[in-house]
Amino acid sequence: MPFQLQSSHITDSFWSHYRELVRTEMIPYQWDVLNDNADIVIEKERNDDNIPSEKSHAIENFKIAAGLKEGHHYGWVFQDSDVYKWLEAVAYSLSIHPDAQLQELADGVIDLIGLAQEQDGYINTYFSIEEPERRFKKLAESHELYCAGHFIEAAIAYYEATGNEKARTIACRLADCIDAHFGKEAGKIQGYDGHEEIELALTKLYTLTGEQRYLDLSLYFLYERGTDPTFFARQRAEDKGTTAVIEGMSHRQLTYYQAHQPVLEQETAEGHAVRLVYLCAGMADAAYLANDSKMLEACRRLWSNIVSKRMYITGGIGSTVDGEAFTTDYDLPNDTMYCETCASIGLIFFAFNMLKNEAKSQYADVLERALYNTAIGGMALDGKHFFYVNPLEVRPDSSLHDPGKSHVKVTRPAWFGCACCPPNLARLLTSLHQYVYTIHPQQRAVYTNLYVTGTAELKLDDQTVQLEQTSELPWEGNVAFQVHTDQPIDFTLALRIPYWSGEPVLTVNGESVSLDIKDGFVSLNRTWQKGDQLKLTLPMEIRQYSAHPLVRSDWGKLAIGRGPLIFCAEQEDNGANLHLIRVYSNQQATYRFDPELLGGVGTIEWQVERQQVGAEWEQVLYSSVAEPTYAPHTLKLIPYYSWANRTPGEMQVWLNKA
Length: 658
What we know:
alpha+beta; Glycosyltransferase; Beta-AFase-like_GH127_C; Beta-AFase-like_GH127_cat; 6-stranded mixed beta barrel; DUF1680 family protein; Beta-AFase-like; 7-stranded antiparallel β-sheet
């Protein structure tokens, strides 16, 4: 390939802090949790007696499956994936910061997984330990291919980071096992997993190995989904097991699994939000690798429905706790939503794979929105507490006493019975360098998706070029680039103009450049010289956002943003009963950076009004005569990602408009 991205490195202070937090806090902490050595309380993500929350037991499950210990499987059937995502985060961390001790620990995990792998390549601790006769026979709920996909992704990352051939071999044997069992050929299972993930993993394994049948298998799973509406029901009827693999799944409709229609016919984002975006991420990558225009068009339709009718302003998705799912267009409740951290991470995967297919800033805009708001909002500033659900409005009493809001936490728990989110976030943050740029070789173009300080090495023909980026995001919109090349070279550098920017200004070597913006990018096609410098100024204004009028929860309200960040009000700064505050849209708000607050954050202050609740409301629930009275109030807003790191209390993103 004449043009490729050789490597990308992040030195950005904002993101380096997070990545170092993963390395020094999250990875060791999560290892202790997975080994049941952490002295913590594991919470249920919602009120449900079926959720196992005594311990993780994830590593112990592998030891039992490997024959090193005796015992029974504990935890969710998909518990293996917690270990795999932890391993993937370790892989990316080692690629950034070599650590012999950590690598030795991870090598041991690979060895353990290898011991747990069965003769035909199959890996799943639950079925190996408890019910080997039910392998691949309850796919609606078994998560076997979901877990397999997560291992394959982890093994690829670990092989690329450390050269561990055993990881690659185990992954290929596992993929070969799946290939031997699934397909249209006689004797094979003509079906798919209830939870998508294997589709994306197989495209990555194809990219690593060049083995066509892995891409073909991914395409098989994608095209097979939804073609036979009886598949899950038939498996349930034929299953000889006496217990459910996961309790409470038998009533789920096919929309929950995105199996109600073939993927090319699906028009709207339906069902479990994480499953949907994992499916779409796999579809987009397969479309890119196979040059499948029909698959890409299906991705475009689902993308459009998500971002124009079913996505929260924070980049969260999933409107209901029931099924952790999408509901209907414009149904975006702020205090009963789900907005799972994993769902926003999956949306980032989807967005990035769409950027591979077509250079349109709308994908990078959503990637950035989800990353800076819901994704990092899913972790406390200490790296040891996490949100499963990311609400846009919280009242502690409601979370405590309303059964319909038991999933809405006021503070981040230390761990969950279903612990998919913490290690998923760890692997996203440690792999963030992969999302900064996208290469389009036929155009000889490098597209800048994220403005993050760091360097990228580009290979053009036989020449290496280094692109050095300096960024002041998320607090200020000043970005600079310097090109390092030994000899003049032609290529296109495309710069994204974000949706949140004021009128941008661009200079090259001090000379102003007119902006010809196409699909949200400014493309500079020129012969680059050693030391060429670009400066891009993206004015950051305090913006007031309104929701579509059909979003009933946000009608008559506005939200505040600056740059990629959405801001919120917390009780800590504004007192209780935040719903009594009203704002005037023509009132000037002021921004300042506070280096002492929450590790250093930008804050917004606004002169607003708060309704007074006086004596006329004593022992009165409804009144036809009481007139509201208001008093001045200084409203203080902080970045949404930083909320719930101080005293527990109310929080609100959408504010009442006067």
